Amino acid sequence: MTQLSQVAGGRGVSHAPPSGRLRDRARPWLYLAPVIVALLVWVYGPLVFTGVLSFMDWNLTAPHPSWVGTDNYTLLTDDPRFGEAVRNTLVYAAAMLPFATLVPMALAVALWKRPGRVSNVYRTLLFLPVVLAPVATAVVWQFLLDPLSGLVNVALGWFGLDPRNWLGDPSSALYVIVLITALKVVALNTLLFGAALATLDRGLLEAAALDGATEWDITRHLVLPHLRRALVLLGLLSLVVTWPWIFSNVAVLTQGGPDGSTDNVYYRMFLYAFAFFDAGTASAAAVVITAGLAVVLGLGLLLTGRRQRVVT
Amino acid sequence: MSSPSRTDARPAPALVAPTLVAPTQLAPAPVPARRGTGRRIARTVAHHAFLLAAVAVMVLPVLWALAVSFKTPGGVFDENPLPWPATLDNYRVATQDFPVWRLLLNTTVMAAGATLLQLLFAVPGAYALARFPPRGHRAVEALIVVTLLVPPQSLIIPLFLMVTELGWRNTYPGLILPQLVGTGLAVMLLRDHIRAVPATVLGAAVLDGARPGEALRMVVLPLLRPALGAVSILLFITSWNEYLWPSLIAPGMEDTTIQPGLAFFLTQEGSAYGPLLAGSMLATLPVVAAYLLASRRVTDAFMHSGLR
Amino acid sequence: MNPVRMATRLRRSPRAGIALIAATTLAALTACGGADSPAADAGTDSSSDQPITISFLSYNYGTPDIGGQGTQALIDAFEKAHPNITIKPQGVAVADVLTRLQTDTAAGSPPDVAQIGWSKMAAAYELLPIVPVQDIPPAADWDAAMEGFSENLLSAVAVDGKVKAVPYTISIPVIFYNADLFRQAGLDPAKPPTTIAEVKAAALAVTDKTDAEGVYLAVADPGKSDYMTQSVIASNGGREVGADGMPAFDQPAAVSALATVADLTSSGAQPAIAATNAVAAFSAGKLSMLIGSTAIAASLQKAADGKFELATTGFPSFGDKPAAPTYSGAGLAVLAKDPARQQAAWEFIKFLTSAEGFTIITSQIGYLPLRPALATDPKYLAPYFASNDLLSPALAQLDDVSPYQSFTGKNASKAVVTLQDEAIEPIVLRGADPAATLSAVAGDIRGFLAQK
Predict the structure, then answer these.
(1) C143 to chain B, closest Cα gap in Å
(2) What pTM did the predictor assign?
(3) E-state strands within C108-219
(4) Which residues are listed as membrane-spanning (chain B) (predicted)?
(5) Domains in chain A, ordered, with CATH?
(6) Closest to C222 (Cβ–Cβ): which among A41, A71, A255?
């Protein structure tokens, strides 16, 4: 029952079985059963259902869905809006990445370096954007970004910049949505990076400092390597968890416009399902999104996993 | 009993990397006598400038919302950011003409319930995967990791039909149980945290005759507090901010949560921004409280430098 | 969420935890067994005199503002007059009405009566089990109840000669204007513009002589309603949707109507901003004219209070053609299956659209009295109109309203969104070529309306 080789640092421990082999073999499954069943029921079941629905034509209320084969998929590939939504989704993900990784990591490290009351105040203040309700967040930015009198344009005016219609301009709207949403992502991930840093042994750093390591040395060789896996995971996670927040900003502020520039596959899926009541096309979009994400994240996990093994 | 396949099992990326980095590669340089206090001051100034700038940007929308929540209907559209003349009328509307407390209660029950439920399912599973992975644990891990790739939004139609079928519309189970969709994330995060619990600590417990269940309760969970704090904040916040699911499954005015509830202020007869933002200010209170409670776990560990 | 307490609880009562897991797992497992038959509606069979409760889905109810208070007042007055009928009101965010009805119907529990916006009405007829209101009472009853109701409107909403949903909270677009800005610009607030050309001239006078913006014609709005598009096109003698339910907005009259609106923007008379920004600017006293629905009259009045003098005038005409605005707002539809509930629903609708009902609707929520005689009746709304004439120009145009036109088929909602997003907004805000854009989008919409 040794898993020493498996655990980084070889800190695995085995429970010497005091009694009964069978019980021993069954025990892990006893512990795992709830989560396995939960995921089968709430993820895999619905996933199969979605797959089946993607071959149906159904508006949710009609007594019987009708089988339409791959029509829904053809409809998606033929719809230039879906193609544009896919492209925008990739831009969203790429633009959001630094705000899910580098920015919160820098903040978390800065906070961690000087622990104390002041840092705790900073930490709490930095967390605030997450606390503000999504609809309220969107409404506030509607004010701040008002093309005629919004604070953002007023502030830019102090630097001699002309006012712009940030959300009304197809060339800037997507990035503005990213920035607005980024505040929440940064806030949450700063906290999570902070949790990751909590397991880093300060004594070690003090020792290194005594040995004459500069602050940068310590950051570079001790802190950042410690955060590498958190960095990868939060980066990948941002591909999954930020969409509801982007969604609420898009729904209130731009509704996918102007000229489809802030549209994305999640918003489009919502439109298909609950604005156009086309459960089949929505399901087809869901299947495409899931498959796409699986490929991207699967590759990501595979690559980082391989690198991880090289590193550790 | 160790199989070769298990040997190359590699830990998936962890939120909190359990790896304690060895103090290597740092050449023992001579201790610099005095690197000048000027430099240290400059560094301190840079440190605070960086954090203050970040805080300014991050806090701006919240302060703006707070200010508008005290503005009069006529003042809402004024350029003056300060709420003058100030009024409490928006708070009166939000609390008297709108069931804000009821919705906050619903949201708290939903978010706390979803967090608790996910942890209840995730902790034993993570413990088993970290400490006594069964034969076939790779398959289990794959099954869990794949659920991380499924965007919950894409399951909404089937989930809606399931919950409707169970007669759980406008109920807490209907709001909470489908959020088990995200349990996989908690399992993977916690698994790596549990692995980080030093063998010596657990070994001692086992030697003392503790059964796995007892070791989990007596040793692992207490050591896991910072991780549980961070993971529960993540789960709580995600659930708290949920908009689409409650609006579909619990649309009733008294049954829904605060997020869809706030949309009631954006009416056909004009948007009541003041009351909306007053309501949203009240809605921040439970989250701030939850954060303060949970983050103390995170911060304590933070202050006491890592694992004890 | 307190993880400490959670951990403690786990530590203290592991059995409780396991029991909970087991229970939820079991509950979840039963979910697998479910088939796809929606739960049956627990309909009650009761004759008309027995106590009965019907549900009423309304996007005004529950709104923490005048709409909610007015709706509550209506319900209270009805229950007082009909003690045997209890109304169970259900609130819903206005953006979610159709979604809610669709999901409620899918769940087997649609409301008995629902307030549905006209831009969603065609989709509602298509998707939902709506019982035409006119079919519920005997013809004589119907005629008696509708005596004095705006005939033009009733015939405008009728589908194949039958009223399926009764007009309820109705508004039509008007010009809101800031009389103070008019004076500053040297215009006479007593003689507001009546044609779109005069609107443009007045707007340019304002931008010329003051810091304020000129006019905003809210033809592209975040709610993706096309009532203003229809109003503009119909006032120029065209149609947005042909009699066949297919796009007609690529015809010359429609194209030139939108070109006229686009010209407001390109000439600088209209700022190229979103409708929400325009409402904010007008409320702040920085926009002299807002052409929008009377629904927002009360909230504009609130914002203007003590800041500037707010006035209204009728929807502008295009050249010498008569102004023909389209109504927006909502109608009342019946979804009850059970005859007793349908009867109760009819009683409720009859009351809401009665003289007493419209007195409350107009004076408390600010929608038009669809029984025009009430405005001058001292028993009903004469006192209201004596002190508040913001709605008067709209009331005067009630006889000119053109029917709301709907696209055909199950993709009707998609057609409206496509038209608004891909043609109207680019044309009026971003200088897209009207003829080319409208014709391209019309082709696209024809394509998917014909599908499946």
Answers:
(1) 31
(2) 0.84
(3) 113-117, 166-171, 173-178, 213-217
(4) 49-70, 109-130, 142-163, 175-194, 215-237, 272-294
(5) 80-311 (1.10.3720.10)
(6) A255
